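hiii, so i know i said id send this last week but things got crazy w the move. better late than never?? heres the sequnce for the chain we talked about at the cafe, plus the structure i predicted for it. fair warning i was half asleep when i ran it
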Amino acid sequence: MNSLLIGTRKGLLIFENENGAWKLASEHFLGARCTYACKDPRTGHLWACLDHGHWGCKLHRSEDGGKTWIELEAPKYPEGEEVKDGVPAKTELLWTLQPGGKDEPGTLYIGTIPGGLFKSTDHGATWELNRGLWDQPTRKEGWFGGGYDHPGIHSILIDPNDSQHIFIAISCAGVFETRDGGQTWAVRSKGLRADFLPNPDSEVGQDPHILVAQPHNINQQWQQNHCGIFRSQDGAATWQMVSQKGDLAHFGFAVAVDDQDPETAWVVPAIADEVRVPVNRKLVVCRTRDGGKSWQELGQGLPQKDAYDLVYRHALDQRAGHLAMGSTTGNLFFSADKGESWQTLSSTLPPVFSVRFG
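okay and structure toks below
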């Protein structure tokens, strides 16, 4: 918890904690859109996913804490692949990167727009498209874009007890599970709601905004969804809504679950759809300690008037009761007491896409 990797509209920023005080320690890829950045706990490598717009997606790895970076070839779709009939598939966004299991030190996964999952077994030197997911019969007609033109994979969960057991979440398609390393996949959307579809209970076409799991128990999962907050206690076999439309905690993008207590989780509420600003123009975090039965509003230290902050799906992180989050207005906040109070680390950053403890 001594460093924070902040992916922003103008590059990757690394904050470090020295004697209890956080400060900006270094900046990387200045001017480039850093869509996601994280640290691989197995190797200590830092990873940065970049979007250079006209020049496309780039992938970088650092083996010395960010002092130097190695550019690697980003995942590419095989020639001839199509998002839909007549629409060529090309890598539009590296949306998330997830290290594999502890028993697979060279394995990494990247989720992309337009909905493909890529795997590397050689520390990112080469990447292969997962055919089991890409060849799903529902993909071309049943998957679609939410905020983007095409569907995208933003969440990848690896079972800590079985590296072949993986969950992903796609916006818009739903939650998928594999138990054989990606050869076959099953939809796991029972209990979710898609009120924007003719059939809200449709198996495919759901819009999870983010999917997270209690770090020590893959069966304890939470998702912030376009249509509410959902929880599963049986490994996504079934989902239960733990929010109500009209309540403060309902719509948003980010969710974090306590790494010791699966009953405790945090969300950052917003006004839905076209508005997407804090409810009542107050930036708050809502916390539950009873599995979503009740939610507590926490705002001490956060902007409580005329706030425009929106916290994206990857821009909230939790570790050992400490939380960090960044917003679209360039604010970066930190809490050392499970969200009870917050301190502002910076109010002058570019829009923040991702926040991860290093």
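btw DSSP finds two helices and 30 strands in the chain. thought thatd interest u
miss u guys!!
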